[in-house]
Every structure is written in C-alpha cells, then in structure tokens.
Amino acid sequence: MTAQLERTERRPLVKGRVLVFAAIAMSALVLRLAVTSFSPLASQIQDEFGFSGSVVGVFGMVPTAMFAVFGLLTPALAKRLGLERTALLAMIMAAVGMLLRAMMSQTWSLLALSALALAGMGIGNVVIPPLVKRYFSDRLATMSSVYIVAVQIGTIVPAFVAVPVADAFGWRFSIGWWAAFGFAAAVPWLITLARSRKAEAETVVAPAVDASRRGQVWRSPVAWGMAGMFGMTSLITYSMFTWIPSILADAGASDAFGGTMVGVFSVMGLVAAFGAPTLCARIANPFPVVIVCAACYLIGFAGLYFAPMAAPIVWVVVLGLGPSTFPMALTLINLRTRSHVGSSALSGFTQGIGYTVACLGPLLFGVFHDATDGYAAPFGLLVVAVVVVLVGAYQACKPRMLEDSWHAR
After folding, report:
1. Which terminus in the chain has less CB density within 10 A, N or C?
2. CA–CA separation, 363 vs 57, rounded Å?
3. 326 φ/ψ angles, rounded to the nearest 5 degrees
C-alpha cells in the first residue's frame, strides 16, 4: 500500500499542469502585496486618519500575526476543503481585503480589512508548497524557485512604486489597485476546479489513501528543525527590514540612504530565491550551505555594529545573503515529505510556529535597544537567533522524511 502511494505521489500530473503552474505563480505574486504596498504610505494614512504611533506598530505586527495564526489553521482547512479550494479562498480573501480597505474611513475597519487580506495571504503561504508537491513532484526545485521568486517580486515591487502611485492617484488607489492581482490569481483556480469529475478524481486519489496514515507533525524532529530554521530566519529578516534605516541613521546616514539599503537587502533575497532551491535539490544534506549563510549573517552584523558607514553597501549585501535559509526552508518542506498531505502539515507547522516567533523580532530588537541605549544587546539577540538557525537546520537538512518520525512510538 505504501509503495503504491509513493508511486501515485511521484507520477507527474500532466493534465492541467500549465493551468496550475499559472495559478501557483500568480498566487505567489500576491502573498506580500498587502504588506509592502502599505508600509511606505503608513505616515500619509496616519495623517489622514489621525491614529497614534502605537497603532502604526499594530499595523506592523498584523502581517506576521496573521501568517502565524493561519499557518497553524490552514492544514485543517485544506484537509476539509481540498488544496485547490483553499488556494481559491486565499486569493479571494486577499483581493477583497485589499480592495475594501482602500475605501475605509475608520481606523478599526482599515485594520480589520487589512487583517482579512493578510489572513488570505497567510493561507496562501501554507497551501502553495503542498500544491507544488502535488502537481510538480518531478520538478520541485524548478517550481520552488518559480514561486519563491514570485513572492520576492511581490515583496519588492510594491515598496518601490507605492509612493509614486500615491503621488499620482492618491494613497487609496495605491493600496487598493493590487486587489486586481488577487482576483486575477483566483481565475485559474476557478478553472481548475471546473474540470471534469473524472480528472479531479485522478488528482485526489493519493491523499485519500495517505490520510489514513496521517501522524502528528509536532512529534517529528524534522518539523521542529524546520520551524527553528524558518522562524529564526524570519525573525532576523523582519528585524533588519525594520531597523536597518535606524542603525544607519544613528551612524550619520540620511533617511533616503537607509531606505535604499532596505531595498538592497530585499533584492538580495531575490538573488537567493533563484539559487537556493536548486542547491537544496542537488545536495543530499545542504547543511554546509546553511553554515555559509550563518557566516554571512555574522559578517553583516559585525559590519553594521562596529563600522556601519565604512562599507554599508558591502555589509547589507553580505547580510542579505544570510536569509537564503528562507527559500531553503520552503524548498525543504517538499523535499522532506513523501506526499502533499505531509507537505501541507509540515508547511503549516513550520510557518505557524515560525511567524509566531518572527512577530517578536522587531519588537525585542527595539526593547533591547531602548533598554541599553545601544545596539550591542539587539545584535546579541540576532546572534542567538543565528545559532538557533544552525541547530534547526542541522535537523531539517538531514536526508530523512517527516512521515518516518511523526507517529507515536
């Protein structure tokens, strides 16, 4: 039975794969739009609504909070609705939330609809890896690169165009027009779900068998290793997104230069998205790559702490290679599972736990900075996070499968 299951899982699902390819790529593009289209305009929106700085902080924490909550809830939702319907729901939630929040005139409704959009994106974060596993099990590295690059593009582009679009058409249009991408991404999922009953049955036979063998993901060291690797990478990344401008400003740089360095840091994530999935697929145990990433983290931290303005571009470029562990983790979700059922469970656990931890990164960095009036303690926190990345990656990178260790002994 197990051998039959594995043969079924590995058989490429050729029919409809072009459509699903488009659906996955378009959905991945949507997964950060609500975050990076809002942040550059936060001060304009604050001036119009009149909310306090603490509310701005709440808006900043909502993305990771929604990603964490729906990371944990999505596997159960996908089990009930199916992967394709869950992906469709995610895109509709994201699109409706982004469109309606642009029409709001009260802080609470703006926040609630932002949360709706981000909840949809949180569902999409989790459901895309098992969809890749289900339809492209023979092309995991290629498809992982496609959707991770799409996520990075959806992160970078809105940040660069939000202010120019707002200057031309107003901030409401600038944060609302991205909803079109969410609605567009829903279309191929609708077409996929409209296929004949026979074709649909061919794609769902494997999970029906595998579901009887479902284990408890939290029992597996693979899952905890993945959560540690992904969570600490996210904590470091969000901390740097938030604090690089302040670190450089305190060293004498202009606000514009600090913003540019955040853009450089983001672009390095795009570079990593092209190479990391292929490395993971070609190396049985890619832990040595993680060691190199850890060295990049430490060199970047040291440069920004001891001599931030000596070679700031160098420090940020090297530091930006450290989060290559992010696309590595997303790729390993599929490489360390036997079926898309296991992939869904591991994706939800990894991202649910990971984003819960990531919520604390920018906050704790700021608390340590305020408490010590310096950056030694905050960077010390990030060094500890790098150690946890290494410990988690040591478990996650071993060539073994989640399903072999997620049952009670």
Report:
1. C
2. 9
3. -70, -55
Helices 140-169, 17-30: crossing angle, 10 deg rounding:
50
Whether the model pTM is above 0.85: no
Question: By C-alpha distance, which of 181, 212, 189 is closest to 1?
Answer: 212
* Sign of the dihedral through C-alpha 356, 358, 362, 368: positive
**Topology (CATH) of 12-213:** Growth Hormone; Chain: A; (1.20.1250)
Q: How many residues does the chain have?
A: 409
| 8 A C-beta contact, residue 383 and residue 113 | no
Report yes or no: 94 and 34 within 8 Å, Cβ to Cβ. Answer: yes
398: three-class secondary structure by DSSP: coil
* pLDDT above 70 (res 289): yes
CA distance linking residue 261 with residue 265, whole number of Å: 6
Q: Tell me the per-residue pLDDT of 346-367, one tens digit each, with 9 for 90 and over.
A: 999 999 999 998 888 888 888 8
Task: State how far the Cα of 167 lies from the Cα of 209, in Å rounded to an integer.
Answer: 55
Structure tokens at 369: 């900075």
Cα–Cα distance between 219 and 222 in angstroms, integer?
Answer: 9
- Read off the pLDDT band of 5 (50, 70, 90): very low
For residue 15, name the pLDDT band (cuts at 50, 70, 90).
low
CB within 8 Å of 98: residues ≥ 6 apart: 33, 34, 37, 117, 175, 176, 178, 179, 182
CATH class of residue range 217-404: mainly alpha
The two domains 12-213 and 217-404 share their CATH topology (first three levels equal) = yes
Helix (H, G, I), strand (E, B), or coil: what is residue 290?
helix
| Closest CA relative to residue 406, chosen from 218, 189, 250 | 218
DSSP class of 58: H
Cβ–Cβ under 8 Å, residues 335 and 138: no
Whether 35 shows a pLDDT value over 80: the answer reads: yes
C-beta of residue 285 within 8 angstroms of C-beta of residue 392: no
Long-range (24+ apart) CB contacts under 8 A made by 80-86 are: 82/204, 83/127, 83/130, 83/131, 83/134, 83/340, 83/344, 84/131, 84/189, 84/192, 84/193, 85/189, 85/193, 86/123, 86/127
Domain ranges of the chain: 12-213, 217-404
State the Cα–Cα distance between residues 301 and 311, nearest whole angstrom.
12
